[in-house]
Specification:
Layout (H helix, E strand, L loop, with lengths): L3 E11 L2 E10 L2 E7 L12 E3 L4 E4 L1 E6 L12 H10 L2 E6 L11 H11 L6 E4 L1 E2 L8 H8 L5 E4 L13 H14 L3 E4 L3 H12 L6 H8 L2 H18 L3 E3 L5 H12 L4 E5 L1 H5 L2 H7 L12 H13 L4 E2 L29 H11 L4 H4 L5 H6 L17 E5 L4 E2 L18 E2 L2 E7 L2 E5 L3 E2 L13
Parallel strand pairs: 1-4, 1-5, 6-7, 7-8, 9-10, 10-11, 11-12, 12-13, 13-14
Antiparallel strand pairs: 1-2, 2-3, 5-15, 15-18, 16-17, 18-19, 19-20
Length: 457
């Protein structure tokens, strides 16, 4: 039996911008949009949601999370991670191949992870596969893996995870060839390890230097520039489709933009922490804001916002990389885990920042919706509010605020650099395929409706 639902009286975000409209949903799929004043007359009874003039936007797609399941669920787990994501308006995530244990670097681990995650997620999910120095020669197995992953991920610097070693330049070349042959995206953590090693050795031995300043100096923008330049050369050589994750500097974005103009199939992601926090915040707060690449000076933050207004940033991912608080609360900054807990607040914080900067939301929303769906081949189902697509929706009030305190935090480990922040908007409801999975009055549904996304062949 088909179920019907209407979402009425909201400012609906479409490819033409916002329009005051109602959405007709049948069996979890958007059937039609109607201007609210001319929608068909009918008896709604209990099968409608009054959006009360709130924004109605596509469910956010976070292509960069580490939910650490299976194997390190004391750090997070897909149950708590997807629940936090749903509260923040995210309806789809792509889970990275490392930080779970074992890492997803072979067919067996991929199969086991996929089976393990079944029925454990509140939201839809896809899985990344990992290319490392240990498996990049195994073309046959990588070919089998490619059928079940959304894209490939490789590191050009130490990942911090023992069973996910980074690829040297010759191994990266092999990875580029394989990804090109498979017509699969290769995403890169692009920092030049040799430069990091050299600077780390130097700054660790500077007596009297503030440790936090030393850490920042050990991973300069030049390490990103060198890694990105090298990868772009190889992508041009082999015709590989590549995606740079968590780029932290406008200088590097400009490099990628030039490559786009020269015909390289490349996209770039940045993260909310590079758009909101800066190195002064890190110097004050320490390990809770430790990440790699590290936070940059304020002028770099402002430059990234300019890149967004120029249309040079393609996607935004949370890079939610959780851990136990004890792994942050260490004697030395060098020993602390590098990763930021943020998936619940990615879009609240970014939209808040955009509004304060008077940047039109129509320029921001695609970075977490349509652009992600288009790049990763799921636009036939997700990423827009359009007839025929899944009814993944977020209702957002601009007249209410969200104060981030520990009771609100839904991560397994209740800390975040967004704590004590007041955000000038609020997620009212999150809808996944026509089902309300979060309501700000009643909380998250008990049912876990999340489904595995089969990659497009």
């Amino acid at each position: 039996m088909k179920t019907e639902l209407w979402v009425k009286n909201g400012y609906v975000f479409t490819s033409e911008g916002f329009r005051f409209a109602s959405i007709k949903i049948k069996n979890g799929i958007i059937e039609a949009l109607y201007d609210s004043e001319i929608e068909p007359q009918k008896e709604y009874e209990n099968n409608f949601i009054d959006a009360c003039g709130w924004l109605v936007v596509p469910g956010f797609i976070d292509s960069h999370v580490h939910f650490n399941d299976p194997g390190r669920t004391e750090w997070e787990g897909i149950g708590t991670g997807s629940r936090a994501a749903a509260i923040g308006g995210t309806t789809t995530i792509f889970d990275m191949p490392l930080n779970c244990s074992p890492s997803v670097t072979n067919v067996k681990n991929l199969h086991n992870k996929r089976e393990y995650l079944t029925s454990k997620s509140y939201i839809d999910y896809a899985l990344w596969g990992g290319m490392t120095s240990n498996n990049v020669q195994n073309k046959a197995e990588l070919a089998q893996m490619s059928e079940g992953i959304i894209a490939w991920k490789a590191f050009m610097s130490d990942s911090g995870i023992d069973d996910f070693p980074y690829v040297a330049l010759d191994q990266l070349e092999q990875a580029m060839k394989i990804a090109a042959e498979q017509n699969k995206i290769l995403a890169l953590h692009a920092e030049w390890q040799e430069e990091i090693n050299s600077f780390t050795t130097f700054y660790k031995n500077q007596k009297g230097m503030n440790e936090r300043k030393a850490f920042l100096a050990s991973r300069p923008i030049s390490a990103e520039e060198k890694a990105v330049s090298s990868a772009l050369e190889l992508a041009a050589k082999y015709g590989t489709t590549i995606h740079f994750v968590h780029i932290s500097s406008p200088k590097v974005v400009e490099l990628i933009q030039k490559a786009k103009k020269n015909g390289i199939n490349v996209t770039v992601e940045t993260c909310p922490h590079y758009l909101i926090f800066d190195e002064e915040d890190f110097l004050k707060k320490g390990a809770i804001l430790k990440c790699a690449p590290p936070l940059r000076p304020r002028e770099e933050v402002e430059g990234l916002w300019e890149c967004i207004t120029n249309g040079w940033i393609d996607t935004i991912g949370s890079d939610h990389s959780p851990c136990l608080y004890s792994m942050k609360n260490t004697d030395s900054i060098w020993e602390a885990w590098g990763g930021i807990q943020g998936v619940q607040f990615t879009w609240l914080a970014l939209l808040d920042e955009a509004i304060k900067r008077r940047i039109p939301l129509k320029d921001i929303l695609p970075l977490g919706t349509a652009n992600v769906a288009d790049r990763f081949g799921i636009s036939e189902h997700k990423g827009r509010i359009h007839p025929g697509l899944a009814a993944d929706l977020v209702l957002i009030s601009l007249d209410e605020t969200t104060f981030v305190d520990q009771p609100l935090i839904a991560f397994r480990n209740k800390y975040s650099p967004y704590e004590d922040r007041t955000i000038l908007l609020k997620v009212k409801k999150t809808i996944l395929r026509g089902k309300v999975i979060y309501d700000d009055q009643t909380g998250v549904t008990e049912e876990k409706y999340g489904q595995y996304i089969q990659p497009r062949k």
